[in-house]
Amino acid sequence: MIEKSVKQLSAMLAAKEISAVEMASEYLARAKAMADLNAFITLDEGKTLSDAQAADAMLANGSAGVLTGVPIAQKDIFCQQGWKTTCGSKMLDNFVSPYDANVIELCRKAGLVTLGRSNMDEFAMGSSNENSFYGAVKNPWDKTAVPGGSSGGSAAAVAARLAPLATATDTGGSIRQPAAFCGVTGIKPTYGIVSRFGMIAFASSLDQGGPIGKSAEDCALLLNVMAGYDERDSTSLERAKEDYSRDLNAPLAGLRIGVPKEYFAEGLDSDVAAAVLAAIDEYKKLGASVVEVSLPNTKLSIPAYYVIAPAEASSNLSRFDGVRYGHRAADYSGLTEMYEKSRSEGFGAEVKRRILTGTYVLSHGYYDAYYLQAQKIRRIIANDFQAAFERCDLIAGPVAPTAAWNLGEKNADPTAMYLEDIYTLAVNLAGLPGMSLPAGFAANGRPIGLQLIGNYFSEAKMLNAAHQLQQVTDWHTRAPSL
User: Fold this and answer.
1) Are 450 and 413 in contact (CB under 8 A)?
2) Going edge to edge, which strands form the sheet with 165-170?
3) Catalytic (active site) residue 341
4) CA-CA distance, 165 to 158, in Å (whole number)?
5) How many other C-beta atoms lie within 10 A of the C-beta of residue 332?
6) Are 72 and 157 in contact (CB under 8 A)?
7) Catalytic residue among 174, 195, 245, 301
8) What phi, psi does 453 have (nearest 5°)?
9) Across 16-109, where does the E strand assignment appear?
10) Helical H segments across 160-255, by residue range
11) Residue 235, Cβ density class (10 Å: 0-12 exposed, 13-18 middle, ≥19 buried)
12) pTM summary value
C-alpha cells in the first residue's frame, strides 16, 4: 500500500478495499516504528482516527472527493485547531491552536486525514532542518545526512513512506530543497495562490504554502485542494479555481525549456550537473526544445534575500513576547526583563541571528542603505526572469549546488549554508512558481533534484512537464531501504 499513488489509494478507498481508519492506522504504525527519523513533532492517534472516521462517513454518504480518506502530514507551521502548533520552536512548545489555518480548513473539507505534525526548522529558518527545538530530522536515504529545510519533516515523511502527502512552505526554497534532498516531488506555487491565513509568518512577502508528494500527479491533486482565494489573507489572489492536473498528459512538443548559463557555473557539484543535464536531455527526447537563457543577477539573490527575509522576520516575530501566548520566562522582575528572558529562552540561535540582522537593516540610518537597496535588487531579479521567459516557457536547472550534506557539517558557518540556496531564492523574490522533482543520485547515493521554474500562474504547465518526465524515468518511484 505504501508504494501506491494517491489516485490508487483513493480508488482503494472508493472501492471499499480498505477503510480510511485502516489506512490511517497502517501509516500511523509505520510512523511510530520509524520515530528515529524524527519526521514528526506530534502524533495523536485519537485525533487521526477521528479524522479517518469522518472520512469514512463521507465515503459512505457519497460526499467524498478524490482525496477523501488519504492520510497527510501537516507541517507544524499551519495552525490546526486542537493540535499543538509549535513552528519547531520552544517559544510555541505549549501552544495549542484555537483555530484552523485556511490550508487546514481546505484539507479538512476535502476529507484528508491528518497523521501528525511534521518537524521543521524553527520558524522555517534554515536549510537543513537542524534548527528545530525538537531535534534534527534525518534523511531517510542516509541517516547521517540532512533532509533539507525548512520542510524537512514533510519531505522525509513522504520519502520514507510514512505519509503519501504532506503540506509544506517555501520562503527561499523550503519546499524544493528538502524535496530534492529526499528524492520526492514538491511545488512552490505563484505567490498568493495558497492562502497564508493561519500560517505562522516568517517573511510575509516571500512565504508560500505548497504540497509535497511522491510524484507530480500527487502534488497536482493536493494543490487543487490547497489553492484558492481567501478574503482573510490580504495577499491572497482573487482568481478562478484551477484544476492543476488538467494538462498532466499533454505532449511536450513545442515546449521551450530555458537553461540559465549562470546555474552551471563554478560551485555546482559535478554529480548534480550531470543528473540535471541528463534530465534536460530526456526533455529533448520528449519533443521539447532547449535554449540557453541568462539570469545575470542570480548571485545578488543571496544578499537581497538575507536582508529582506530577516527584516520581515524581525517584524513578524515581535509578537512572541511572552504576554498572550507562547513561552514566558519563569523568573523576572519587571516587564522589560520578562520580554528579554522570554525571547532569549524561547528562540534558538538561528532565529535570534535573523531577528538581530533584520532589526539592524531596518534601523535608522541603515534602512536606505540595506533594505531599500535589497528591494530594488528584487525588482531587477524579477525583470531578469521576464526577459528569460520571452525566449522560453519553463526554466530548468539544479535545486541546490550539492546533494544533501552531513548532519552538523555546516552548523559552524551559517554563511556556507546560506550559499546553498543560490538557485532557489530568486524564485521567491520574484514571486514565481517553482518545483523540484527527482532526477537521480549522487555518487554517495543521496538524491538529486531537478528544478523547474515557470512564469506566473504556470503551475499546470510545470506539473505537465514534470509528469511527462516521470513517465519515462523511475527516479520518483524509488524508495529508501528502511
Assistant:
1) no
2) 40-43, 113-118, 71-75, 165-170, 208-213, 185-188, 434-441, 447-454, 394-398, 256-260, 289-293
3) no
4) 6
5) 15
6) no
7) 174
8) -125, 135
9) 40-43, 71-75
10) 176-182, 216-226
11) middle
12) 0.97
Contact 275, 402 (CB under 8 A): no
- Residues 430 and 191: their CA atoms lie apart, in Å, by 9
pLDDT number for residue 204 = 96
Instruction: List, as one string, the DSSP characters of 427-439.
Output: HHHHT--EEEEEE
Residue type, 106: L
How many Cβ atoms sit within 10 Å of the Cβ of residue 287? 12
Catalytic hit among 150, 195, 314, 342: 150
How much of the chain is helix, strand and coil, in % rounded to 5? Answer: 45, 15, 40
| Residue 414 burial (CB count, 10 A) | 16
Could you tell me the three cell numbers for 314? 524581525
Q: How many CB atoms lie within 10 A of CB 429?
A: 27
pLDDT at position 287, please?
98
Phi-psi domain of 228 (left: phi exceeds 0; alpha: psi -120 through 50; beta: other): left
For residue 150, whether the previous peptide bond is cis, meaning omega lies within 30 degrees of 0, is yes
CA 183, chain centre distance (Å): 13
3-class DSSP state of 249: coil
> Can you read off the three cell numbers belonging to residue 6?
494517491
Q: Is 150 a catalytic residue?
A: yes
> What's the pLDDT score for residue 266?
87
d(C-alpha 407, C-alpha 271), whole Å: 20
Cell numbers at 288, concatenated: 521539447
Check if the beta carbon of residue 240 is closer than 8 Å to that of residue 454.
no
- Give the chain's residues under pLDDT 50: none
φ/ψ region of 323 (left if φ > 0, alpha if ψ in -120 to 50, else beta) reads alpha
Is 138 an active-site residue? Answer: no
pLDDT at 482: 83
Task: Map residue 400 onto helix, strand or coil.
Answer: coil
Strands (E), 295-381: none
| Distance of alpha carbon 288 from alpha carbon 41, whole angstroms | 43
**pLDDT tens digits, one per residue of 366-394:** 888 899 999 999 999 999 999 999 999 99
> Judging by DSSP bridges, how do beta strands 185-188 and 434-441 pair with one another?
antiparallel
Q: Which of 47, 75, 138, 214 is catalytic?
A: 75
